[in-house]
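In the laboratory, one determines a bound structure by crystallizing the protein with its ligand and collecting diffraction data. In a computational setting the workflow is compressed into a single prediction: the sequence and the ligand go in, and a structural description comes out. We illustrate the idea with coenzyme A.
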Amino acid sequence: MLSVPSTLLRSSFIAAMCEFEELVGTADANGLSAADLSWPDRFETYVRRLAEGSLPWQRTHAGARVRCWWWVNDGEFIGRISLRPDLTPGVPHANHIGYAVRPSHRGRGHASAMLAAVLPEAFRLGIDPVILVCTETNTASRKVIGRNGGHLSVIVDGHCHYRIQR
Ligand SMILES: CC(C)(COP(=O)(O)OP(=O)(O)OC[C@H]1O[C@@H](n2cnc3c(N)ncnc32)[C@H](O)[C@@H]1OP(=O)(O)O)[C@@H](O)C(=O)NCCC(=O)NCCS
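The predicted complex, in structure-token form:
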């Protein structure tokens, strides 16, 4: 289920960040580590700011707000997805939607379901086509996008640019 970031998900969110750190060396929390987030004050501030869209990177070049949701299953944090309403001119591989699923829960259809849940929000904002970009070697993400109606428009420097139309 698509949910607004919530402090109620603290333990599963931190457990997920530990999984990211183990797999790729860093958490998936905008520069914060699992250890940083173990401080209740820091976690609460991070979640509040993420939910209200006030983290610095959540302002787009045109002043719109990047919206972030968490994907929750059985009361646990599973992944995150963000929607950027406008593409920054000149930024290579600019895209509207980014997502990640915690490593222990991959391959169960969560990312596909998460993207399917956010696409109507994008269309409601007038984004059409929705642009998604992933590396050519990111087979899982390419499957997720393809399953949601993505058409590969071009490959630039090893990055696949997909379009999803309403
Ligand atoms: C990409 C990502 C979000 C996919 O999440 P997920 O919940 O596992 O995705 P889904 O289960 O909905 O679908 C993934 C599909 O790719 C397949 N897959 C996963 N890894 C694969 C691999 N290395 N080779 C081939 N297929 C692979 C899965 O089996 C599944 O296909 P299936 O349902 O036909 O079996 C996840 O791998 C992730 O968080 N990666 C790191 C962040 C990232 O790359 N984000 C996308 C940036 S654009």
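Residues 135 and 157 are 9 Å apart (CA to CA). Keep in mind that any predicted model is a hypothesis to be tested, not a measurement.
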